[in-house]
Each structure stands twice: as C-alpha cells, then as structure tokens.
C-alpha cells in the first residue's frame, strides 16, 4: 500500500504536497518524494526514511512550481533505496510518474524497453514512466498515450502523471486501485486518499475502474480506456481537517480510541429506507456470503455467527483474498455482504467484480460516501465514523460492530436495541475517562518478569 497525490493550482505545489505526504504517511513510510515542474524544468526530491527526516535532509517543501506529484512508499518490489523511491522519471526527464498498485507484467515490459531505455530501479513502477515516454513519442497526446499504456499494463494500478511540456495539466489513471479528484477553488488535486487534501476541499469525484482524468486548475475531463467521455457529478464528503489531525493526542490511534464513544452512536444514524431494504433482503431466503479483509473479516465472522440464529438461510464468511470456492457457489439466489473500512479494499472489490454477471445482491457496510463499494451496492450502510488514520482498527471496528448489532436487533424485534448501543457508548466513554489509573497499572505490569491471572 502506497500513497500518491498530485496538485495543480495557484499555490506553490511543494508545501501542499508535503502536507499531503504527512497526511498519508500511514499508507507507507519507508521512503517518500516530491516532483514539481517550474518553467519546463522538472525537479525531483526523494529519499528513504520518515517524511520529517527526509524533509529536514533535502527540504521537500522548497521545490518550485505550481504543479507537482508526490508519493509515500511501502516497498513491495525492490528494496528500500533512494533509487526505488518514487517519483520515477522517463529517460529524457520530461515525464514523471507516481504509482500505487502492482504491475504483474513489468518484467516482460522491462525486456521490451531495455534496448532503448535505462531503467535504474528494481521496482515494477519505473517501467511505467518509460512506457509512457515510448508511447508519447509516437502519439504526442497525453490522453491517447495513457489509453495505450493502460491497456499494456496488467495488474492493479493508480497513476498520477505530469509532462514537462504540459505544465498546466496533470493526469490520473485508475484500474483496480483507488484514485480520487479533489475539487478546489482555482486548484485541484488527484490522490489515492481523501485525507491528503481535506485541508483544502471536501468536494470530490471518485474515478471508476479503467478511467483516465485530465485535470487543470479549473477543469476536469474524464474518459475511459476506450476514449469515451464520462460525465460524473461531484460528491461532498462530510469530513473536516480536524478529523485527520491528532489534536491534543500523541498519536492518531489514541485519538481514534477516544472517539469511539461518539462514533459508536454515529453508526446508528442510517437512512431508514436503506436500512429497511438491507434487512428485508436478509430475510428473502437467499444464501448469504459475508466477506472482509483484516479486522473487517473478524466482523464478518461475528456477523455470521449472529445471523445464523435469526435467518433460515445458510450463512458463510470468508476472507476476501480467499474467495474462489465461495464465488463458484454464488448465483442470483445469493447475497454478498462486503465489509470495508475504506470502501476501496482491493481484494474485496475483486470479489464483487467476479460475481458481477451472476446477479448477486450486494449489501455493503463501508465508511466513505461515494467510494467504489458504495457505488456497486444494492443497499449500503455507512459507518459514519470519519477517517481512520491509525494503522490499527479502532473506531472503524466498533462502528462496524454497532451496525451488526443494529441489524441483529431489528431481525430479533428488540424494541430498545438502539438504546442498548447508546448505553454501551456511554460505558466506553466512562472507561476511557479512567485512562490514568489504567496507565499506572500497565506501567507496573510492564516491568514484571511474569504475570499470572
């Protein structure tokens, strides 16, 4: 998992991109870099380490130019080296690429390009900048170039690309990896993560799979891989800059633990019609399959155990990455319940793509309005817990659990179900208010050789 972002507008790009990198550091923190264009000249600053340390060393925020891209890396191909850090340049240093995802056929592409291009890194990403250069030399048009390149890349990827001879335009490409356009005032953003630009705008356009976007400071043009123009309305995301700041807490995770007393209650705030439709489908007699990744899979297991007590249909839960045998069992008499924190979980969205033609009913639980998962669902329930920056699932997990209980209480005709969940949230608040004595006990236990309970 990596974080990618791009900016174009009236501000100097580098400080904006540096702030974006800090917002996205939870997505990857072994290396980072920024590239800007100023007077047709490309500047790249990148290195290994945490972002603050890199910035202190090479002053990421001082690159000139009002257009740029940035990347924070979690290494998947190639070691943690400066050469493997993004952004990546083409041979003539006219094209800059940042990439999130995996290019499955990069070795084959490397062989095809190696006679005419010098590839300096061990990554699967650098080959993209050289492939774009190869196509751009023929097409002379960025959109057509990116169409051609996208069809040659196998795997999942989101790209943000800038061309030194198109310094008023920035490009994004999405295939099976999240990419979002942030719409500002005389400035626009492209990013894998809303939190990267939430300080500037909460109006967004979510790109769909196999789409390319051309962004200027005041316009957005979307086409698909076949070149057809796409029209899409913007979405307002009800997040604020305060939602992604640590405020008075030392870590995001500590802050998000303390937010649970309110986020558990927020999870109860569902659209009545959507919630009723979700629950009605569960009683339709169809076979139920629940899936998730990471902590969301544990919610899937809990949900399965509870659901079997209230409906007569078979209920199964599975890891999204281990879906093959379950997909074979799905048909138009099946319900798929994908559970996700972001609504952009790659393995989970792959499951949905594989059952798309089977007329499976999709009932989703997610945390981002307008996300990929929300758009492919027949009915969906929103966690309403705001962005979760900490790597460990805290408020997202308890919010998912609150929604599961809300559904179960409805199926079981429990009249005061919501009140019980609200009472639980008050108990969470009470427990968290006693943090100091807990810390004292933990500090004592931490220094003991053995502990018997």
TrEMBL record:
It holds the Pfam family SIS. Its EC number is 2.6.1.16. Keywords: Aminotransferase, Glutamine amidotransferase, Repeat, Transferase. Residues 2-218 form the Glutamine amidotransferase type-2 domain. InterPro entries: GATase_2_dom (IPR017932), GFAT (IPR005855), GFAT_N (IPR047084), GlmS/AgaS_SIS (IPR035466), Ntn_hydrolases_N (IPR029055), SIS_dom (IPR001347), SIS_dom_sf (IPR046348). GO terms for biological process: fructose 6-phosphate metabolic process; protein N-linked glycosylation; UDP-N-acetylglucosamine metabolic process. It catalyses: D-fructose 6-phosphate + L-glutamine = D-glucosamine 6-phosphate + L-glutamate. One of its GO terms (molecular function) is glutamine-fructose-6-phosphate transaminase (isomerizing) activity. Gene3D superfamilies: Glucose-6-phosphate isomerase like protein, domain 1, Glutamine Phosphoribosylpyrophosphate, subunit 1, domain 1. It is an enzyme of class 2 (transferase). Residues 278-417 form the SIS domain. PANTHER family: GLUCOSAMINE--FRUCTOSE-6-PHOSPHATE AMINOTRANSFERASE, ISOMERIZING (PTHR10937), GLUTAMINE--FRUCTOSE-6-PHOSPHATE TRANSAMINASE (ISOMERIZING) (PTHR10937:SF0). Catalyzes the first step in hexosamine metabolism, converting fructose-6P into glucosamine-6P using glutamine as a nitrogen source. This is Glutamine--fructose-6-phosphate aminotransferase [isomerizing].
């Amino acid at each position: 998992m990596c974080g990618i972002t791009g900016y174009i507008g009236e501000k100097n790009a580098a400080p904006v991109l540096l702030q974006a990198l800090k917002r996205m550091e939870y997505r990857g923190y072994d290396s980072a870099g920024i590239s800007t264009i100023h007077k047709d000249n490309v500047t790249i600053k990148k290195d290994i380490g945490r972002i603050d340390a890199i910035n202190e060393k090479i002053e990421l925020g001082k690159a000139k130019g009002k257009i740029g891209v940035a990347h924070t890396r979690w290494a998947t191909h190639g070691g943690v080296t400066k050469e493997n850090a993004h952004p990546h340049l083409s041979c003539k240093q006219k094209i800059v690429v940042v990439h999130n995802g995996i290019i499955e056929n990069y070795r084959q592409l490397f062989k095809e390009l190696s006679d005419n291009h010098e590839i300096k890194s061990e990554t699967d990403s650098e080959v993209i900048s050289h492939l774009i250069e190869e196509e751009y030399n023929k097409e002379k048009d960025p959109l057509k170039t990116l169409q051609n390149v996208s069809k040659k890349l196998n795997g999942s990827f989101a790209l943000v690309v800038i061309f030194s001879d198109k310094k008023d335009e920035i490009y994004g490409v999405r295939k099976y990896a999240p990419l979002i356009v942030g719409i500002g005032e005389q400035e626009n953003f492209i990013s894998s993560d809303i939190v990267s630009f939430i300080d500037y705008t909460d109006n967004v356009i979510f790109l769909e799979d196999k789409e390319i976007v051309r962004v200027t400071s005041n316009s957005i043009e979307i086409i698909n891989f076949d070149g057809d123009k796409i029209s899409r309305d913007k979405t307002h995301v009800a997040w604020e800059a305060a939602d992604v700041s640590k405020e008075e807490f030392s870590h995001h995770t500590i802050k998000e633990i303390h937010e649970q007393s309110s986020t558990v209650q927020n999870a109860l705030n569902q659209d009545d019609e959507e919630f009723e439709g979700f629950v009605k489908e569960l009683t339709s007699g169809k076979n139920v399959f629940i899936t998730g990744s990471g902590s969301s899979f544990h919610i899937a297991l809990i949900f399965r155990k509870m659901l079997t007590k209230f409906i007569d249909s078979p209920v199964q839960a599975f890891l999204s990455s281990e879906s093959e045998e379950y997909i074979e069992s799905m048909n138009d008499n099946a319900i798929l319940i994908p559970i996700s924190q972001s609504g952009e979980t790659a393995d989970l969205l792959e499951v949905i793509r594989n059952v798309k033609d089977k007329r499976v009913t999709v009932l989703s639980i997610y945390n981002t309005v307008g996300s990929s998962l929300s758009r492919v669902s027949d009915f969906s329930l929103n966690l309403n817990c705001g962005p979760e920056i900490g790597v460990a699932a805290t408020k997202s997990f308890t919010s998912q659990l609150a929604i599961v209980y809300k559904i179960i209480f409805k199926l079981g005709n429990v009249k005061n179900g919501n009140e019980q969940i609200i009472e639980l949230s008050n108990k969470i608040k009470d427990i968290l208010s006693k943090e100091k004595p807990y810390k004292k006990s933990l500090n004592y236990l931490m220094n003991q050789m053995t502990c018997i309970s």
